[in-house]
Automatic annotation (TrEMBL):
Organism: Streptomyces camponoticapitis
Pfam families given in the database record: PmbA_TldD_2nd, PmbA_TldD_3rd
Domain Metalloprotease TldD/E central: 128-219
Domain of life: Bacteria
Residue ranges, annotated region (Disordered): 170-195
Name listed for the protein in its UniProt record: Peptidase
Domain Metalloprotease TldD/E C-terminal: 228-459
Length: 465
């Protein structure tokens, strides 16, 4: 859908606010554009470009018993459909009971200087340097007897936020992901690598192909191991998948109500408790270099610790874990008041600093005997009270002996809690940007170190590749 046929995003936001007859109104216009490449068997298969808009209208209605809210989101909204959308949100609010999280809408601050500018858009030009380098990698892989499969995706979302209290904010969010699989011709060996990027200028297909080629050589020797507890090196991508789930489970309200691993026995939360002996810092910062995210709350719906009433609230650097101690849990204004904890809305990135300087390769060199994982897959929650998770290893588990990888072992199902892992980790490596394999469709801005866990629980053998 082109903006020319339906109005510029900021004009749509202003018009929707003018049409509102509710006591309060929030309008969010998300302008999306994507460019992608896909390949299989060392050949490019498809490429494409998409454009679209999603408009969300949040109406608030005051009543004797409190303020109610109604939220309606639609894509491809034309000028003629705008008023019906606003009326639908108002009808939803009037038909709802008082909203538990109701608070005064955020007051206006400085207006984004680019609020009236055209939305940012990605194009196929984002792959101008990457695509030729990928083609060269195809040739090298073909000559080396391996096949490359994968995709590259780049998204650019311009979000325009306007409210009846005068908030006028805009944020442009680039988001790029690359996933690359190398397979032996008989498909018996497979290796995976992924990268997160803002613009594909920092992605080197040749380096990734070389990394995967080395892993396929490791896999030429197959070693069968039973289930059990092993010293294990978790690479940054696996650490990211586990700690992102921990962040998603860090609801202050759920903890205060006794439902999570962060609940204190007898009542209250574990804020202030020591979670790790290592001086770990788990944090989010909208201004983190290379992982920049929206500096204000963008809430399309309310949840336990997010609120549509908080739209436009400024975000700042937040320490979730500091020096190994639990420092913050996720709160909205409403849940902060309920729990007595500081206001700490979620930020769309996550960084773990462990103070280590060694690379994953150097950690391998310092391992007497242990397992080296590639990534985790199919992660599911087993027990929220302990945050016990289960999942599978995938695309390569390798045995390390006396500082060298000596072969590939079978895959496993694991049972572990990320909170418990932090308490048992004996070493953290150097923090680096990474792409979570499991959650890469939802959360891409992460930087993690590799972690050494002396007794990672491989609960059963898996037949997966």
């Amino acid at each position: 859908m082109s903006t020319s046929s339906s109005g510029k995003p900021h004009e749509i936001v202003e018009r929707a606010l003018e049409l509102s007859t509710a006591d309060g109104c929030v309008v969010i216009a998300d302008e999306h554009s994507t460019a992608n490449l896909r390949w299989a068997g060392n050949s490019l298969t498809t490429n494409g470009l998409t454009r679209g808009r999603t408009l969300t209208v949040i109406a608030t209605v005051d009543g004797k018993e409190g303020t109610a809210s109604g939220v309606v989101s639609r894509s491809a909204v034309t000028a003629d459909e705008l008023e019906p959308l606003v009326r639908a949100a108002e009808a939803a609010a009037r038909g709802a009971g008082p909203a538990e999280d109701a608070r005064p809408l955020v007051e206006a601050g400085p207006v984004s200087e680019d609020f009236t500018d055209e939305p940012a858009e990605t194009t196929s030009a984002v792959f101008a340097d990457f695509a030729p380098a990928l083609g060269e990698s195809f040739a090298r892989a073909r000559a080396g007897g391996r096949e490359l499969y994968g995709f590259a995706n780049h998204e650019l979302t311009s979000t325009y936020l306007g409210t009846s209290t005068g908030v006028r904010l805009r944020h442009d969010q680039p988001n790029g992901t690359l996933e690359l699989n190398a397979k032996s011709p008989d498909r018996s060996r497979s290796a995976w690598a992924g990268r997160s990027t803002r613009d594909f200028k920092d992605v080197d297909p040749a380096a990734l192909d070389a990394e995967l080629a080395r892993r396929l050589v490791w896999a030429e020797r197959r070693i069968e191991l039973p289930a059990g507890r092993y010293e294990t090196l978790l690479p940054p991508t696996a650490v990211a998948d586990l700690l992102i789930y921990q962040l998603w489970s860090s609801s202050a309200r759920d903890a205060a109500e006794g439902r999570t691993v962060f609940s204190k026995p007898g009542g209250g939360t574990r804020v202030g408790d020591t979670l790790a002996e290592l001086p770990l810092a788990l944090r989010s910062d909208p201004n983190e270099p290379g992982l920049e995210a929206a500096p204000f709350v963008i809430a399309h719906a309310s949840g336990d610790d997010s609120s549509v009433f908080d739209n436009g609230l400024p975000l700042s650097a937040t320490d979730w874990v500091r020096d190994g101690r639990l420092d913050r849990l996720v709160t909205s204004r409403h849940s902060a008041e309920l729990t007595g904890l500081p206001l700490a809305p979620a930020v769309d990135n996550l960084v773990l600093d462990g103070g280590g300087e060694r690379s994953l390769e150097e950690m391998v060199a310092g391992t007497t005997r242990g397992l080296l994982l590639t990534c985790l897959w199919y992660i599911r929650e087993v027990d929220p009270a302990t945050l016990l998770l289960t999942g599978l290893t995938r695309d390569g588990v390798y045995l390390v002996e006396n500082g060298e990888v000596v072969g590939e072992v079978n895959n496993f199902r694991f049972n572990e809690s990320p909170v418990d892992l932090l308490s048992r980790a004996s070493e953290a490596g150097r923090t680096e940007k990474t792409l979570p394999r499991e959650w890469g469709d939802y959360f891409t801005r992460a930087a993690m170190p590799a972690l050494r866990v002396p007794d990672f629980n491989m609960s059963s053998v898996s037949q997966g590749v």
